[in-house]
């Protein structure tokens, strides 16, 4: 999980927001300006819809904002630099949010619950760092004063996004540094390969990676799917991980139970299987779905700012 997630102005890792930042003209007006003057866009802009060239009144209003430190015109070089920073921020946001959605909606959190490869963790935290730096630079360029940050509609929405982003990063850090090690410690329990009957916790150790066999449970029986080409790395079609009870999942499968029954039966799932997930696992699932909700909230805030 990478969830993942940096801070302050860097907290808006939203593709839509970044597009608006990247392609906004240096003298772009905002709805806040219209609200301040009580006049329509065509009063300051020669185009009725806004943008492009300014009228004489628009130029005067722009100069007044510049003198107050609320407007910062950009040179051509600054525009190119901002574009490059925004492009990097946008690509990182797509990578981060896309990974969260893919893991939660396609692979399911169980895939990450048993530990992400070190390469994926590294990629996640590098992405967080890049988003923090580029997001901060873009936000500072877009919001020149603290007053604009806390006393305008745009600034308030940006502040909310920053808070959500910080919570997501804090969650990722907590999972990486606290929950992750606890789950790894659980996995280090000696495999009960000599036992035929396994509890749900014991079954979870047979997830098909790190040299471990891949076991699944179905209707109270445990099957070894290690030798199946359909279970590479202990995951079936990148969706169903080994080490758990797939009785319910099979009901929605495109094939019948005959595929499972052909596998080697190695034992039975004991009644203790109903004991539930260990506490660290419950915390992991809660934080994982929390970040998924935050992804949708951040996107909602961007949509609200742009079209609401």
Task: Give a short synopsis of this structure.
This protein is α+β, with helices and mostly antiparallel strands. Helix content is 54%, strand content 6%.
Structure report:
The protein folds into three domains: 150 residues; 42 residues, no CATH class; 70 residues, Cytochrome b5-like heme/steroid binding domain (Flavocytochrome B2, Chain A, domain 1, Roll), CATH 3.10.120.10. The strands form two sheets. The protein has a four-stranded mixed β-sheet. Strands 4-5 form a two-stranded antiparallel sheet. The protein contains eleven helices and six strands. Strand 4 and strand 5 form a beta hairpin. By secondary structure, it is an alpha+beta fold. 33% of the residues are buried. The protein is elongated and about 85 Å long.
Keywords summarizing the entry:
about 300 residues; Flavocytochrome B2, Chain A, domain 1; two-stranded antiparallel ribbon; 11 helices
Q: Approximately how much beta-strand content do the residues carry?
A: 5-15%
**How far apart are the termini?**
31 Å
Which whole number gives the mean pLDDT? 75
Q: Tell me the series of helices and strands, N- to C-terminal.
A: HHHHHHHHEHEEEEHEH
In the sheet with the most strands, the strands line up as 1-6-3-2
Task: Specify the structural class.
Answer: alpha+beta
Helix content: 40-55%
| Global morphology | elongated
Low-confidence stretches at least 5 residues in length (pLDDT < 50)?
1-29
Overall number of domains? 3
The count of helical stretches stands at 11
- What is the radius of gyration? 26 Å
The biggest beta sheet reads: 4 strands, mixed
Q: Could you give the count of β-strands?
A: 6
């Amino acid at each position: 999980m990478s969830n993942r997630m940096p801070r302050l102005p860097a907290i808006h890792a939203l593709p839509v927001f970044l597009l608006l930042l990247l392609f906004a003209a240096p003298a772009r007006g905002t709805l806040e300006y219209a609200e301040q003057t009580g006049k329509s866009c065509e009063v300051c802009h020669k185009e009725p819809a806004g943008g492009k060239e300014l009228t004489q009144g628009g130029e005067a209003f722009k100069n007044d904002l510049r003198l107050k430190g609320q407007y910062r015109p950009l040179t051509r070089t600054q525009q190119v630099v901002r574009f490059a920073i925004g492009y990097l921020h946008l690509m990182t946001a797509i990578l981060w949010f896309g990974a969260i959605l893919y893991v939660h909606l396609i692979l399911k959190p169980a895939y990450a619950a048993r530990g992400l490869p070190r390469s994926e963790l590294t990629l996640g935290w590098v992405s967080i760092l890049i988003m923090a730096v580029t997001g901060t630079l873009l936000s500072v360029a877009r919001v020149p004063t603290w007053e604009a940050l806390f006393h305008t509609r745009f600034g308030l929405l940006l502040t909310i996004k920053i808070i959500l982003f910080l919570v997501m990063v804090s969650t990722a850090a907590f999972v990486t540094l606290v929950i992750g090690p606890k789950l790894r410690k659980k996995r280090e329990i000696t495999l009960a390969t000599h036992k035929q009957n396994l509890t749900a916790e014991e079954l979870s150790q047979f997830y098909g990676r790190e040299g471990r066999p891949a076991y699944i449970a179905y209707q109270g029986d445990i099957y070894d799917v290690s030798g199946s080409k359909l279970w590479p790395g202990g995951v079936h079609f990148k969706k169903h991980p080994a080490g758990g009870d797939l009785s319910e999942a099979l009901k929605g499968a495109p094939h019948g139970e005959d595929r499972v029954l052909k596998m080697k039966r190695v034992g039975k799932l004991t009644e203790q299987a109903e004991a539930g997930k260990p506490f660290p696992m419950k915390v992991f699932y809660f934080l994982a779905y929390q970040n998924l909700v935050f992804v949708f909230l951040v996107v909602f805030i961007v949509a609200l700012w742009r079209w609401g």
